[in-house]
Design goal:
This protein has a domain of 132 residues. Helices cover 75% and strands 0% of the residues. The protein is mainly alpha-helical. The longest helix has 56 residues.
């Protein structure tokens, strides 16, 4: 009996010792679940953007740029070919860049890179596309062989120029409103800091 009681006593002391050492140990097991990082967790299709003016304009720009590029690619022979090559480069570049921006905005990828001024980026793209599409369409209209593909490319070129022009106007207005909204809090913060500093100087004249 004594041996059994001593064994039970040793077991109790061992369990108490392990509980104390476990409580004092800095390496405690955690019961919180470990969640794997999901890098693409915030990506979703922004239907509201696609239904907005900017989303609709982006879709129309991509479609018209692609149609213009397809029309100019169907031309097999040209002499001179400067106007054709210029329009081909502009339509392909506008299709790729605008398509990427449409993908970025519609999937909310721009929120992953907040340090980029996306409003200004969109403004630069639309303004540059407006200018170069107008110029390339004008050159192709003056230098062409009056084939169906060239005439169609010129028509779609001027159409997409108008769409880009509308987008540029809206982008400029959005950019100005964004800068105004950002500038107002900075100005009020600056005035508040100056007021606080002036009050501290008046309360402590020895700092003057």
């Amino acid at each position: 009996m004594r041996t059994t009681e001593e064994a039970e006593g040793f077991d109790g002391e061992a369990s108490n010792t392990s509980m104390i050492s476990g409580a004092s140990s800095p390496y405690q097991p955690t019961t919180e679940p470990v969640h794997a990082r999901n890098v693409l967790g915030g990506i979703r299709c922004d239907v509201d953007y696609l239904k907005s003016y900017f989303g609709i304009l982006k879709v129309v720009e991509v479609v018209l740029s692609l149609i213009g590029f397809i029309c100019i690619e169907t031309i097999m022979m040209c002499s001179p070919c400067g106007g054709v090559y210029f329009f081909e480069f502009v339509s392909c570049s506008a299709f790729v860049v605008t398509g990427m921006l449409l993908l970025i905005f519609s999937l909310n990828l721009h929120t992953k890179v907040p340090h980029v001024n996306w409003s200004l980026t969109d403004l630069v793209n639309t303004a540059a596309s407006t200018f170069f599409f107008f110029l390339s369409s004008l050159v192709l209209a003056c230098i062409n062989h009056r084939t169906g593909a060239e005439i169609a490319a010129v028509i779609f070129g001027f159409l997409v120029t108008g769409v880009y022009g509308i987008n540029t106007f809206l982008a400029v207005r959005r950019w100005r409103l964004g800068n105004g909204c950002q500038g107002a809090p900075q100005t009020s913060e600056y005035m508040r800091a100056r007021t606080a500093s002036r009050g501290e100087m008046e309360a402590r004249p020895e700092l003057a």
